Amino acid sequence: xAGVMQNPRHLVRRRGQEARLRxxxxxxxxxxxxxxxxxxxxxxxxxxxxxxxxIDESGMPKERFSAEFPKEGPSILRIQxxxxxxxxxxxxxxxxxxxxxxxxxxxxPGTRLTVT
Amino acid sequence: KNEVEQSPQNLTAQEGEFITxxxxxxxxxxxxxxxxxxxxxxxxSLFMLSSGKKKHGRLIATINIQExxxxxxxxxxxxxxxxxxxxxxxxxxxxxxxxxxxxxTHLIIQP
Lengths: 116, 111
Fold this sequence. Notes:
The structure holds 2 protein chains of 2 kinds. Chain A has strands spanning 5-7, 10-13, 19-24, 31-37, 43-50, 53-56, 65-68, 75-79, 88-95, 106-107, 111-115. By secondary structure, chain A is mostly beta strands.
């Protein structure tokens, strides 16, 4: 059973370009969380999605950031017109969403975004 | 909004020592997680607790719900235990809540 997969592992973008980060949850998991870790800072929650639904996006910046988790395929975190301040490690985690394991979150290896 | 405090921020110890990392939070939770992160690396989930105590190998995690406090212990520490240990809490909505993280404890175990 493969773990949570994220790609790419490293992404370099110039200012103003778009960044697309992908997360494939563990098999059988229908809940995905995205977190951001800025340099020298702690992890922060961004968004929580179930298949085809955004449940909580309270941690997402209001502009340029969007997330989706379609019926088929990986969850995508999209950052438009990237700026240097977007440089960070982006982690996704997946959860089965079913009691009693509904609180377990399994983390992916992260995507390290560098904006030049 | 939950505030998660970890102590100490940095800890250097000799191989073989018993290590304790503490975590306190301000608001009631559904679960508490202990995570491990190596420099430049991914995040590994060590424990998820909602009550009592859990043990896995040389690692022990405890939680006191009334006092809003958890501890992570490492027995017979080894240089490979050197990493950042992060406490994270899940709010009262359970799986519907994203995690709130502490700032982490940087642990170095010297041979």
